[in-house]
Amino acid sequence: MTVSVNPLMDDDREQWEVLYHGYAEFYQVPMNNQILDTVWSWIRDDSNPFFGLIAKDENGKALGLMHCRQMASPLRGALVGFLDDLFVTPEARGQGVVEELYAALNRLGKQQGWPFIRWITAENNYRGRAVYDKLSDKTHWVTYQMQID
User: Fold this and answer.
1) How many degrees, rounded to 5, is the angle at CA 101 between CA 6 and CA 104?
2) What residues have CB less than 8 Å from 138, skipping those under 6 apart?
3) Whether the model pTM is above 0.70
């Protein structure tokens, strides 16, 4: 399967909503139109340091998404990245989609000048954590941090 990862664009909204509903369902968080509209407005606001990425197959079908943002790290006196959301459709898991998303995230981190990107996940997200353990460094805060190379 050929996977491409790009920033979310206006014409991605419908497929993004399907993915985001899947993400919310995975974490058993209710989703509604107000939340969808708010998050979409963050993604599409160029003045806001909030980024959305979408992975698609060669036919343009959405396979996964990432949302991340810039945040201050006061102890470092630097701006860093924070990955808020990652979701890959169940049928696309294990096919390299998440690796392509993380490669794009790494490129975005370089472009933004972030020294690393940190994230958290549920303790029982065993499949996701197995991937994170390969791609990043586990901190003692039960968060993950990817060094930007």
Assistant:
1) 60
2) 132, 144
3) yes
Residue 94 structure tokens: 């294990």
Strands 62-73 and 116-120: unpaired
Token pair listed for 18: 């399907």
Convert the pLDDT of each residue in 71-83 to its tens digit: 999 999 999 999 9
Beta strand 3-7 pairing with 50-57: antiparallel
Element (H, E) at 55: strand 50-57
Region for residue 93 given its phi and psi (left: phi exceeds 0; alpha: psi -120 to 50; beta: otherwise): beta
Q: Could you give the angle at the alpha carbon of 70 between the alpha carbons of 69 and 71, nearest 5°?
A: 120
**What domains does the chain contain, in order, with CATH numbers?**
3-147 (3.40.630.30)
| Two structure tokens written together for 58 | 């060669």
Helix (H) or strand (E) holding 21: helix 13-26
Please compute, for residue 130, the number of CA atoms within 13 A of its CA located in the half-sphere on the CB side: 4
